[in-house]
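Troubleshooting entry. The earlier prediction with adenosine monophosphate gave an output that would not parse, so I re-checked the input for stray whitespace and re-submitted. Clean input:
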Amino acid sequence: MLTVTEALALVQEQAKPIAPRRLHLSEAAGLVLAEDVASDVDSPPHDKAMMDGYAVDSSDIAPVRQVIEEIAAGVVPRLAITSGTAARIMTGAPMPAGADTVIPVEQTEMLENGCVQLGGCNPRQGQNVLPRAASVRAGDIVVREGALIRPVEIGILAEVGRAIVAVRPRPRVAVLSTGNELVQIAERPGPGQIRNSNGSLLVAVAGAAGAEPVDLGIARDEIGELRDGVRRGLAADVFVLSGGVSAGKFDFVPQVLSEAGVRQVFHKVALRPGRPLWFGVWTDSNERTLVFGLPGNPVSSFVCFELFVRPAIAGLAGRGFAGNATMVVSLQHAYDHAGGRAACLPGRISTSEGTNGQTIEILSWGGSADMAALTRANALVQLPAEPMRLPAGTPVTALMI
Ligand code: AMP
Ligand code: MG
């Protein structure tokens, strides 16, 4: 059976960035830029007043100046400053010719006769003025291809007029829940039935991972219904199925996927929970879909999503093949790890009184169907396949959830 590392490498090989698309800037936050963007303007576009005050020539020593003009932001000054004159200027306005300094209004006093008294201040050249192009020169690259577009990148892209940008779009992730026992979440399950909690869980976690989720609902464990669901799922960039990939008599998912032309890359990973994981790729001219058959138990589904699907989404989105952040934290208590397979266990990181820094507790849980235990966790503790006795204080790797 493949190790988690081997399986991840096989997923990574397939998770290359999807084709760029041109989107409005308002839709680009959180995506990766797919072009170098150059500025079409100098910024600021003119020598700019950075305070409300008086624009003056710093080499002029006259304590009282004639105010010759009032310059608001958005207007162009008409008059040049000469010896003995000043212009009232507002923040953001262009500096008039002949002026190199703004004296803040608080340091001045307006006189009756249209003059201003510059109360004993000693203006420095360039004070409170941002020179033209000090931030960006026209033609400068302001954001490079491959950069993650955070709010600050949105700000500069807007400043340089990029209403439309080429980005790696959010991967579309289709979610199909399989199982005869499943009913809609708004229904009360009858005897032998359970609600389709995985559908909601996977749609939510796909959205949180930066994808655009599409919920395909429930398919019965029946070839015809599965075929129909698979046909719809293959229209997405990533197709996530839950259930039907184990060794049960009605686990038809691998068969139906193969028949639909999805090439199996691997089936089963040495991981607990999550062993039945199935992964394959569907290709058709220039369309491609990465297909994940996740085990039906909710905790297994979630663990496989975090370990394999989340990094794949990041890879497709151009963010590099990466999952959530990990932390090395020391174990609060001793733990006996049975080994055999790598383990991913619900853990809770906390800062306990009197300790220096954070520690992690491995939570008691009822196995891979115990979703409630995961709600008490804030991390997954990752342990290797080797059996080991971990004394309290052992540093362990925690994947943040
Ligand atoms: P399977 O992988 O189909 O063998 O399912 C394993 C376990 O997960 C069974 O107990 C199922 O009832 C449960 N299960 C399967 N699909 C879902 C789902 N969509 N939501 C919640 N539990 C599920
Ligand atoms: Mg099933």
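This one parsed fine. The helical segments are 4-14, 151-159, 197-208, 223-233, 253-259, 298-316, 371-375.
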